[in-house]
Amino acid sequence: MLRPTEEHFDVVLASECVLPKLYPLEPLVACLGAVIGPETVAYVAVELRTWHAFDPKARFFELCRDAGLGCETVPRDALDPDFVADDLEIWQVARSRKSPSPPPFVVERWGAGSAKVRARGVALELAEGDGVGAV
User: What's the whole-model pTM score?
Assistant: First the structure.
């Protein structure tokens, strides 16, 4: 079981983690709860998929609430229009005591083993081999 630590990340990025047929949501939320500190904001990129047993979005938001995390969908108009798709959403997760009002989140470059994103006024350069990985 993951336990919260004294050290936390500023920003956590996760994608391809909400696949209910393959991965249960509970370990993902437990992991987020362990790495999200009082000032951390997590962004979870999700391809919206239909699952017959339950609504993955509703279940994820419920699990986050139960874990003391607030969760909101980042509005489409806050995203870079070049990287918006009808079947994709970005969920913002933060500690509940801090209301997670979505800031602009812009993907400036993506592909070929690197990415550049801007969140909360901070530009992040990500590259394969730099310790970047999925939650």
Answer: 0.67
